[in-house]
Amino acid sequence: MAFAANDLQGLMRALEEQPQARAQLRMLLLTNDVQALPEQLERLTGIVEQLAQAQQRTEERLERLEAIVQVLAEAQERTERRLERLEATVQALAEAQERTEQRLDKLAQAQERTERRLEQLAQAQERTERRLEQLAQAQERTERRLEQLAQAQQRTEESLDRLSEEMQAFATWQRGEAGRRKGERYEQLIGRRAPALFNGGQGGPTDQPRVQERLLEALRKTPALDTLTDDENPFLADLIWWKDEQFMIVEASLKVNGNDVSRAARRAEALQRAGVSATGIVIGEAWTGPDARQQAAARSIQWKVGDDLSDGLLDFRRL
Fold first, then answer.
1. Which residues pair with 243 in a beta bridge?
2. Short-list 231, 217, 312, CA closest to 264
3. What is the tens place of the pLDDT at every residue in 42-64?
């Protein structure tokens, strides 16, 4: 049986308006399996929804996992970079360790050489100490010897001092003796020149008998002749010269000094106290200084010193 288009449209409106009819029609048209499809589809939709939720959760977990993996990757990268730096550090440490070991080897060798050197130095030190001990003993012997030499040197110096004093005394005596002999020769020369020097008269050295007799005669009035000192005693004058009753008491010296003037004055005074007309005179080659000439003039002593003649001598020469 054929349906018209209008009939179909009316049926569809009726099914739409009558749900029961629509359900009955469905039961008539669909098999049990097909009828179960909505329920199954509903269950499937629930399952799919659950799967979708599970998928969402999985995706969320994957996102979290990807974040964690990213973090881990970054950490891994940092770790790798740190490992690279660590490897470089380890390499540097290894190289430094190698250099250190090489240096340690060198130090060990140097230490070995040092120990050998120290051993040699210890042996040398021991030899040095033995040598020092020997030197100390030798020094001690030397010091004892030096002490002996010092004592001997002191004795030698004392002997040399005594010898030097003796030599000095001898030289002084020799000079004095030479001066005395020279003075004696000069006195003898004056004695020989006296007649010309005094332009006549008599006299001579006091060791001549005729001079001593003349002095004794002149001093016969002196009560205590033996009390005269050497500087006062006319018998110790170098020369006595007289003309008539005028006497010259002569002191002769190469260089006339104050002592010569004093002796001439005191010996002339001794004769004057005995009532004799006596004058002291000094004869020499030179004065020792201007004081000696001034002293002679002050004590009325005449002189013939070099070419210098006093007025009193010139007067005596004219007698």
1. 246
2. 231
3. 787 787 788 778 778 878 877 88
